Amino acid sequence: QVQLVESGGGLVQAGGSLRLSCTASGRTISSYAMGWFRQGPGKEREFVAAIDWSGGSTVYKDSVKDRFTISRDNNKNTVLFQMNSLQPEDAAVYYCAAGRLVNLVRSPAQVDYWGQGTQVTVSS
Predict the structure, then answer these.
(1) Contact call for residues 118 and 6 (beta carbons, < 8 A)
(2) Rounded to whole angstroms, how far apart are CA atoms 75 and 52?
(3) pLDDT value, residue 14
(4) Distance from CA of residue 92 to its chain's centroid?
(5) How confident is the model at residue 81 (pLDDT cuts 50, 70, 90)?
C-alpha cells in the first residue's frame, strides 16, 4: 500500500504561485508513474500533469503548459508541483496520484493510489 499526502495548497491572488508537495509512505514510489489531478466544485476530476518513474518524461493539460511544472525526487519519495501565474479557473482541490502499470498516469482509471487532496483557491 502507498499512502500519499499532499501539502502546499492555500489562497493566492491571480498571477501568484504555489508549490504543492506530495509525500509518499508505505513503500517507495520510484517505480510508479505519478500525476496531479484536480476537481473543481460540481466538476469531474481532471488530469493536470504527469511524470514517469524516472522523471524524464512529463505531460501536461494544455491550459497549464508553460505555467505548471511537475518534478519528483525518488530519494525523498516526493513529487513536487510548481504552479505559476495561477488563474481563478485553476481553483480546485488538487490530488496526487500514483499508477503502477502505466508510463504516465493521465486518467483516473489508471490511478492505483490517491492522496486526500489539497485546496487551491485563486482570488481575482
Answers:
(1) yes
(2) 15
(3) 98
(4) 12
(5) very high
Mapped onto helix, strand or coil, the DSSP state of residue 102 is coil
Residue 90 pLDDT level (bands cut at 50, 70, 90): very high
Whole-number Å distance between alpha carbons of 81 and 69:
6
Report the distance separating Cα 27 and Cα 75, nearest Å: 12
In the predicted model, what is the mean pLDDT of residues 52-57?
A: 96
Q: How confident is the model at residue 79 (pLDDT cuts 50, 70, 90)?
A: very high
- Residue at 78: amino acid letter: T
Backbone φ and ψ for 116, nearest 5 degrees, come out as -85, -15
CB 74, CB 23: distance < 8 Å: no
Q: How high does pLDDT run on average in the chain?
A: 97
Cell of 63: 491550459
Q: Residue 73: which region, alpha, beta or left (left: phi > 0; alpha: psi -120 to 50)?
A: beta
CA torsion, ordered 72, 74, 77, 80, to nearest 10 deg: -10
